[in-house]
Amino acid sequence: MDHGPIPLTAREAASGLFGSVSMTCWFFLLVPQLIENYRNGNAEAISLLFISVWLIGDIANLVGGLLAGLVPVIIAIAVYFCIADGVLIAQCVYYKVRNSRPEPFHRRRSSTETPDPTTPLLGRRFSDPLASSESRRRRSSGSLRHYHAGGRRESEVEDTLAKIVEESDYGRKAWVKNFTSVIGIFLIGTLGWTMAWQMGMWSPAPLDNKNGSEDAIGGQVLGYFSAVCYLGARLPQIYKNYSDKSCEGLSLLFFILSLLGNLTYGAGILCHSTEKEYFLTNLPWLIGSLGTMVEDVVIFIQFRIYAVQDPRLSAIS
């Protein structure tokens, strides 16, 4: 039987729209970082403790949401995110194990050896899995590797061109890419919710809680535990960025989507209702989502402080 769209108030429509945009953010959240790790051939920039604590928080969030009787979209997000966390952790472990294997001696290359002029420009930066974090920091500060005196200038130009081709996400181009991605997320979320509403597949969640008191209390406890995990998960990443004095290897879009997802998630809950009982039921999830936005801002500041200088400028010096 085909159901038409259900009449909605402005708050109900806003809640559904924000919830759909939030779910879209969570769906695509880890994709930029997975791609970044794949491009780099390593996952050294990501704190494994960050993702592990996040996974624990997502598991607690899922169980707590089930016990507290939260809306299905929250449960669906929690299930998906547990799976996505596992994928990212598996990728990090894979690269850690793979890059820890010593290469055969005949494949190792001296740092003073003259590079083969036929070596392609693309792929040079991450061609040596034995590169240390110290060499990564030197690269992130804009320094170029120097070879023998006769070909040093040519090597600098070659490395500069390689960086421009490989890492063209500087300045205006990076802003355009990220802004376009955010607009795309809003469009997908809005279109998805509109279609679901028009087809009668979406309706506002009821405000009353049918669960027993024991389940509700258990859900609240797990909800607060997940909030603590979410608030604490980013601290290892913030400390790692500070220790390395670099955010190289991290996807800025990953944290932009995290901030946007948390913002729309909290807005969707508050638009749905601000009644005391409903607010208190969702308080741990509000703390977990809105609280982590502060830490995301700290990471944005780190991106700015430790920004990689445009290699086209450093080549001139």
UniProtKB/TrEMBL annotation:
PANTHER family registered for this protein in UniProt: SEVEN TRANSMEMBRANE PROTEIN 1, SEVEN TRANSMEMBRANE PROTEIN 1-RELATED
Keyword set, alphabetical order: Membrane, Transmembrane, Transmembrane helix
Q: Where is the composition biased (Basic residues)?
A: 136-150
From the UniProt record, list the coiled-coil ranges.
Answer: none
One GO process term, biological-process aspect: vacuolar transmembrane transport
Quote the protein name from its UniProt record.
Vacuolar membrane PQ loop repeat protein
Please tell me whether the keyword Protein biosynthesis is annotated for this protein: no
* Family assignment from sequence similarity: Belongs to the laat-1 family.
Q: What domain of life is recorded for the organism?
A: Eukaryota
The keyword Membrane appears for this protein: yes
Q: Which GO terms describe its cellular component?
A: lytic vacuole membrane
What reaction is this protein's catalytic activity? L-histidine(out) + L-arginine(in) = L-histidine(in) + L-arginine(out)
Query: What is the native source organism of this protein?
Result: Penicillium fimorum
